[in-house]
Write a sequence for this structure.
């Protein structure tokens, strides 16, 4: 308390310009990191700067990023969904089951999306209607959804998808531009507009910052959260279609641990894990950063599990470093 | 009003477990033979030990998703140590396991305490890092039974008074934690931190430090379990106990430990673990595919958390009833 009286107050002569604050933003830092990784990769491996290789590398993040956009909104609103990878497993299993009975590609897509939506609605019911903490609910449904896949499939696998189903995960729209890449861009734009340009987006931020305040200012908090869980489920359904189509088969262990990478992507993108702030452009750049890191390490023959160390360090590092930075800065100011 | 006369959640859970045992025994009578129940308990012992550590962490409003990776890493380290130095006495190995586990817990705890990073982010991160380190130190290879010394693998299976050492360790852990939670200032401050962190600060409790200690305890138990696990199954590889952290959290949630912190008991954690253990052991006996287990524990978490939330809601006293109705 005594500190406050002795401390001199710094009043800036003028506020920082918009360009200056944009330069100092999280997104700018992240973009610099992405460029640096890109340059390092192009020097260390001769195979990196190849249009087809780079196009292949986008598969590292497109599916995860589709979910990450919806997850970003959910986390900004102060909730989380750890069941996304299990929703993929269940949606993929449902599609595989339908394919066994001769369903065509349109039916498979409808089934994948519907299962995703239903799973999202299931989560949403527990969180918004029963008022339970989303982290426990989705840890539960994470076991439940994948558990149902295991019950249906056991240690078997579904194959035999219709040949035109491969278009989603293996098709190209134009030259090296994949279908997934186009989907990624379209979904990014949709979520960017939804979060940054609509009332719904404002409501999401308001709920994350102060749910009670949001409620008293007329936002239907539970309904918005319900929709966010639906969207996350739907995006998991889309990712399930892409992943299943790309792999051409379904096992119950499909996409294991993907929830971690999705959450990492969102947090790396500058979204506050406690809710209230974050942006879609940040998540987009984070997706590229993660994709480039995994692709670059892959070219250097680093095994997947070692890459996961990098992902884990990245996840903790991106939150820890700014905090250490401010701690040092504060200490210096006091001294 | 009835709820006041129904004894605590522990009694309900005990009744559920007994009912479950009776139901199973109608299908297969041998299941409730004492010798088999001892087996079930022994099989559940690692889960019980880990659930105790997780309980302490959850009570302080945190969560530790890195326990299974911690267990696997410690297990791999002691297994490799045993291969390199077969003469190392078991007490030393146990001390190393506990210490190593505690250090990993301390890493989690420090990140949560000093940098105020949300526990779920920290432990999701360290979970993958620990698993990755196992791969780095082992080069992806297995440590198999024939490479381990007889003393190393024999210790958890040695029977004392009809119970294997593994079970005795679980019993001991339950007793120690029971005393710690009820009779020591650390136990009280763990409850205080979870119940109301602001009030805890005003009573002179360092919230961050208590959370740190909770992570250290959880890590130490995970380390101890790491040795017991590897020795019991006589194999160590990268993926042992994969996904086990969820089962541990499930045991806690089923045992009535509130994920919001501050509410829970040692008895609840043990019963939650036993419930899952009985289900897991019963499935093959009554001819249900073990693939059902994941879905069953998922449903059990959802039912338990919904049930706990209902039970907790009646506790608050409604004041200003008219105001509540108008909203």
């Amino acid at each position: 308390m005594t500190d406050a009286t002795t401390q001199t107050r710094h009043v800036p002569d003028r506020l920082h310009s918009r360009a200056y604050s944009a330069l100092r933003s999280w997104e700018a830092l992240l973009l610099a990191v992405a460029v640096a990784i890109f340059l390092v990769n192009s020097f260390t491996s001769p195979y990196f700067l190849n249009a087809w290789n780079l196009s292949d590398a986008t598969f590292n993040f497109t599916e995860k990023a589709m979910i990450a956009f919806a997850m970003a909104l959910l986390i900004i609103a102060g909730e989380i969904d750890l069941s996304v990878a299990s929703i993929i497993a269940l949606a993929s299993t449902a599609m595989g089951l339908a394919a066994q009975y001769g369903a065509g590609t349109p039916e498979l897509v409808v089934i994948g999306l519907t299962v995703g939506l239903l799973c999202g609605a299931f989560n949403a019911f527990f969180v918004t209607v029963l008022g339970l903490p989303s982290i426990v609910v989705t840890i539960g449904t994470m076991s439940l959804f994948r558990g149902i896949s295991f019950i249906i499939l056991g240690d078997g696998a579904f194959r035999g998808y219709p040949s035109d189903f491969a278009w989603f995960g293996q098709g190209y729209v134009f030259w090296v531009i994949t279908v997934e890449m186009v989907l990624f861009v379209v979904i990014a734009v949709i979520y960017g507009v939804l979060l940054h340009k609509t009332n719904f987006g404002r409501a999401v931020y308001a709920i994350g910052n102060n749910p009670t305040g949001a409620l008293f200012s007329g936002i239907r908090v539970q309904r918005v959260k319900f929709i966010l869980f639906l969207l996350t489920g739907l995006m998991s359904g889309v990712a399930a279609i892409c992943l299943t189509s790309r792999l051409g088969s379904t096992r119950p262990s499909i996409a294991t641990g993907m929830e971690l990478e999705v959450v990492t992507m969102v947090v790396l993108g500058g979204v506050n894990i406690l809710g209230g702030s974050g942006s879609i452009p940040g998540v987009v750049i984070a997706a590229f950063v993660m994709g480039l890191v995994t692709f670059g390490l892959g070219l250097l023959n680093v095994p997947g599990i070692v890459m996961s160390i990098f992902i884990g360090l990245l996840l903790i590092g991106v939150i820890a470093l700014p905090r250490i930075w401010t701690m040092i800065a504060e200490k210096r100011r006091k001294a | 009003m009835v709820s006041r006369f129904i004894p605590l959640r522990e009694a309900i859970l005990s009744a559920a477990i007994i009912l479950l045992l009776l139901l199973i025994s109608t299908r297969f009578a041998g299941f409730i033979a004492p010798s088999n129940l001892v087996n079930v308990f022994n099989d559940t012992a690692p889960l019980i030990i880990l659930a105790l550590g997780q309980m302490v962490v959850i009570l302080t409003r945190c969560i530790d998703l890195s326990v299974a990776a911690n267990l696997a890493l410690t297990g791999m380290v002691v297994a490799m140590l045993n291969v390199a130095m077969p003469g190392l006495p078991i007490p030393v190995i146990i001390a190393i396991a506990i210490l190593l586990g505690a250090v990993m817990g301390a890493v989690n705890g420090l990140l949560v305490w000093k940098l105020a990073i949300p526990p779920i982010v920290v432990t999701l991160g360290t979970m993958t890092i620990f698993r990755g380190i196992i791969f780095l130190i082992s080069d992806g290879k297995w440590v198999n039974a024939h490479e381990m010394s007889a003393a190393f693998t024999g210790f958890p299976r040695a029977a004392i008074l009809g119970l294997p050492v593994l079970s005795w360790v679980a019993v001991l852990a339950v007793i120690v934690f029971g005393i710690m939670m009820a009779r020591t200032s650390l136990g009280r401050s763990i409850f205080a931190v979870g119940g109301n962190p602001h009030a805890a600060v005003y009573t002179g409790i360092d919230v961050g430090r208590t959370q740190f200690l909770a992570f250290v305890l959880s890590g130490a138990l995970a380390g101890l379990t790491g040795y017991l696990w590897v020795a019991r199954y006589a194999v160590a590889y990268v993926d042992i106990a994969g996904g086990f952290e969820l089962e541990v959290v499930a045991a806690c949630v089923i045992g009535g430990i509130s994920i919001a912190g501050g509410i829970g008991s040692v008895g609840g954690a043990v019963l939650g673990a036993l419930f899952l253990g009985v289900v897991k052991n019963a499935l093959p006996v009554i001819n249900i595919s073990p693939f059902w287990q994941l879905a069953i524990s998922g449903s059990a978490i959802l039912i338990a958390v919904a049930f706990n939330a209902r039970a907790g809601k009646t506790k608050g006293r409604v004041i200003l009833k008219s105001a509540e109705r108008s909203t």
About this structure: Residues 1-5 of chain A have pLDDT under 50 and may be disordered. Chain A touches chain B through 45 residues (CB under 8 Å). The longest helix of chain A spans residues 304-334.
